[in-house]
Structures are given as C-alpha cells and as structure tokens.
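S.,

Sequence below, as promised.
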Amino acid sequence: MVGLRTRGFSALEFAIATLLVAVLADLLLNRLLYYEEQVEKTRVEAMIRVLQGALRIRMGQMMVESKAHRWADLADENPFDWLDKKPGNYAGECDGACEIEPGYWVYDRKQRQIAYRVKLGRYFDQGDDDHMIRLRLRAVYAGSGEKIDSRNPAETVVLEWVRPYRWF
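The prediction came back faster than expected:
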C-alpha cells in the first residue's frame, strides 16, 4: 500500500468543501425565506377573504332584519368584531398613528381602516418602505357611486385596498 494518503483533507480540499457547503446553505436559506414569505402572503390573503365573507354575512343578517337600508353604517364598524374568534395576530384597535408590530393586524378607528404590517417584505412593493397593507369598507351607491342624499341607501358595501401593492 505504498502511496496512499492517510492524513485526511488538504487545506485546499477543505476550503473547497467549506465553500461548497456555505453556498448550498445560502441557497437553502434563501429558498426557506422565500417560502416563509409565500406563507405570510397566503395567510394575509386568507384573512382578507375571511373579512369579506364576514361582511357578506353581516349584510345578509341586516337584510333578514329589514335593515338593508342601513348598510352604509357598516363602513364605520370594525370588521374584526364580526368574527366569532379574532385571529391570534390581531393587535386590537387604535386611534390614528398606530404602532403595528410586523405580522399583526389592527383596526384604526380614526382612519376607519384595517392595517397589516408585512413581516417579511423582500418581495413586497408598494412604492415606499411602509410595508403596510391598508383596507377600508366603502358603501357603494346607485348611479354615481356616491351618496346623493339621505334617501339614497347604499346598494352594497365593499372591502377595498386603500393603496395598491404588489407581492411577488
């Protein structure tokens, strides 16, 4: 067995192996962060759909109670109050300048808006570094879409984005 090396890796081989492991670890970490942000986006979209469903149920309840003429009043309510159980990442209500932890929802009573601060925003674009998703309830009226007088009840109420954004 002449010529067999028994001392292990050379310094160059060790450096190359370490570099390869580091590159693979970086690729894995980036992919895991990408998927984690995809999960956050999916959870946000699911919560928006839950709130839209709660709005439709609330409108249906009012219709059954012969109160459909008061649908416009829903635009002043906190949609999270319509849920049987509030989500674990709902931080409550605030009045105006809300300090929101990343990954949490709040209802701003002053602005009458639902707000969510994005936790992982590498692929979130809104034109600034705010990383906030804001939604509001808006009553829609016949014709112009605006309230003409008090005898003009809202045709529907919609949950809409205050500012558009792109996520992925």
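The chain is about 30% helix and 20% strand.

Coffee later?
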